[in-house]
Amino acid sequence: MSAATNKKLMQDIFAAAANPDPAARDRALFTASLAEDAKWVVTGQYSWSRTFSGKEAILNDLQGYVRTRLRDRTRTVAHRFIADGDMVVVEAKGDNVTPEGVRYDNDYCLVFRFENGKIKEIREYCDSILTEKALGPFPEASVRTAS
């Protein structure tokens, strides 16, 4: 796939998942676009820093846990897409609240790498202090296939 095609796919994924109406948010395109052997690398040196290996670990261990720490359905709004070859960089901002009422509006830089038309790798850069302050440390027991 071309850089333009990859960029358009990411724009469509974020548009569907960031709908202002929580009932209309749709993550199906992201799920369908994720390679079975994809990995999500949470960068840094804090409790969330690790590599989630495989589609199941990404959807259940990482994103599943995040959803338990946020009210309603999670929302991350992208505001910039940069594509080059098999890479798409997305700058985005969260629009979320924890069950305790704490705002979690992290800034993200997400680097997506494509292979054979599927998302093969995601590297996440964010404010680690805000993540642990709002969501708490990542629980080791909830990780099955992360390394």
Q: What is the annotated CATH architecture?
A: Roll
Low-confidence stretches: none
The major beta sheet can be summarized as: 6 strands, mixed
The total number of structural domains is: 1
SS strand fraction:
35-45%
The end-to-end span amounts to 29 Å
CATH class wording: Alpha Beta
Helical coverage, percent range = 25-40%
Write down the overall mean pLDDT. 93
Rounded to the nearest angstrom, the radius of gyration is 15 Å
CATH topology: Nuclear Transport Factor 2, Chain: A
> How many helices?
4
Summarize the helix and strand pattern as letters.
HHEEHEEEEEEH
What is the number of strand segments?
A: 8
Shape call: globular
Given helix and strand content, the structural type is alpha+beta
Arrangement of strands in the largest sheet: 2-1-8-7-4-3
Give a quick set of tags describing it.
alpha+beta, Nuclear Transport Factor 2, Chain: A, 6-stranded mixed β-sheet, 147 residues, 4 helices, two-stranded antiparallel ribbon, globular
Verbal overview:
Helices cover 29% and strands 35% of the residues. The chain is an alpha+beta fold. It has a single domain, classed as Nuclear Transport Factor 2, Chain: A (Roll). The strands form 2 sheets. Strands 2-1-8-7-4-3 form a 6-stranded mixed sheet. A hairpin with a 5-residue loop joins strand 5 and strand 6. The longest helix is centred in the N-terminal third of the chain and has 15 residues. The N and C termini lie far apart (29 Å).
